[in-house]
Amino acid sequence: MGREGVVAGSGGALALPRAVAPIETERLRLRVVNARDVDAIHAVQSREDVCRYLPFAPRSRDEIAEKVAVWAAGGVLAADGDLAMLAIERREDDVVVGHIHVVLSSVENATATVGWALHPDFAGQGYASEAARALLRELFGRVGLHRVFAWVRPENLASAALCRRLGMRIEAEREHFGWLRGDWRNLQVWAVLDREFAAAEAGAPAPAGRDFVRDVPYGAESSDAPDPALPAEFPGIRTERLQLRLLTADDVDAVHGYQSREDVCRYLLFEPRTRDEVAAKLAEHAAHTTLASRGDYWQLAVERTGDGAVIGDLYFALAEPGSAAAEIGWTFHPDAHGQGFATEAAAALLDFAFDTLRLHRVAAEFDPRNERSIALCRRLGMVEEAHYLEDLWFKGAWADTGQYASLRVE
Q: Of 31, 135, 17, 141, nearest to 79 (Cα)?
């Protein structure tokens, strides 16, 4: 299990760099925002009823002017993180009714995220659907993307309905995903593949989304603001049968013993490694001893106390320090399977994350075909939150990603 490593290969033949606008529809024009749009965008982003669904508080005109200056200089998709912010302009009178944006999330995985906001005065007239559909035609057509997704607040029923009209389906329901403006926010991920969008354009009904059912609602016992105990050094954890510690150069042979195996690497993001490759990775891990900022991680040896053998390793990384969120992963030698070692090690690390580090949320991502990891997540009390369809170009083919998570209150 685990997401440590890099993806080899490429899943898409993208036409990059690409300016995604201007785009014209029957009633609308999508174009990169410019200085003349400040007042129109401020009229949208200054409203509390609009921003309740956005990841920021209502903005002042000066704040909007600064943003527009940055957005106006962009609009070309070429590399991960590139943003095109487009005004939605009515062609008949050049009135800007809202805005829509696209972020190139991953060139490697041919994926982008989209989002939109309309002034309430123009809601209910089909403008959002017309604009979003035109943008997706551009992204799947000329740009050549494989997958487009959107973040939607569960209570934003208008955006959820728009996603359905675009042929999107729910891939994730992520609870307490972020702390924003004094409250924990829940988010849905809606997504559509190129072939699904083409089917929707041809009149096929949108596919049904997944239903991620929880026995115990997230957040039922907690509304506390995040207060993680960071920065943190790993102190070592001892359980009944195991010792968790940072990996060192002395562990090369033990780690190579399982990372060199095809059956172990089947669901990992790398091919079987040589001893030299393992040594280089452990040297890289040795520099990561402190959790403080996003992306900081620990790579931990799981050592059996009875004989001192390293039987596997755990990965633990900060995902969003501001929301006290982290990610966990694991890899074990097949000889250690079926003896409860993975459960014992991961449970101890989760207890440490929640009780000592005061983290709020820990998630695990893995290939959904990895039945052992699914079973382990369930034994740990983690709950399924997501199944991302064909979101990863993995060893020469499209692959899915599953996600389970736990909260501190659970």
A: 17
CA distances from 144 to 10, 108, 118 (A): 13, 12, 27
For residue 13, give both structure tokens: 């033949």
With a cut of 60, say whether residue 214 has pLDDT above it. no
Count the alpha carbons within 13 Å of 188 in the hemisphere toward its beta carbon. Answer: 22
Termini Cα distance of the chain? 23
Contact present, 400 and 184 (Cβ < 8 Å): no
Identify residue 204 by its one-letter amino acid code.
A
Three-state SS at 379: helix
Taking the C-alpha atoms of residue 112 and residue 83, their distance in angstroms, rounded to an integer, is 10
Report the pLDDT averaged over residues 366-375. 96
Q: What is the mean pLDDT of residues 24-49?
A: 97
Buried b (16+ CB within 10 A) or exposed e, 345-361: bbbbbbebbbeebbbbb
Does the pLDDT at position 217 exceed 60? no
Task: Give the residue among 232, 230, 242, 227 at the shortest CA–CA distance from 348.
Answer: 242
Task: Evaluate whether 258 touches 332 at the Cβ level (below 8 Å).
Answer: yes
| In contact, 20 and 84? CB cutoff 8 Å | yes
DSSP single-letter state for residue 322: G
Whether 160 contacts 152, CB under 8 Å: yes
Helices and strands, counts by H and E, the chain? 11, 20
Closest by Cα among 349, 366, 392 to 109: 392
Q: How many Å is the Cα radius of gyration of the chain?
A: 23
What is the pTM assigned to this prediction? 0.90
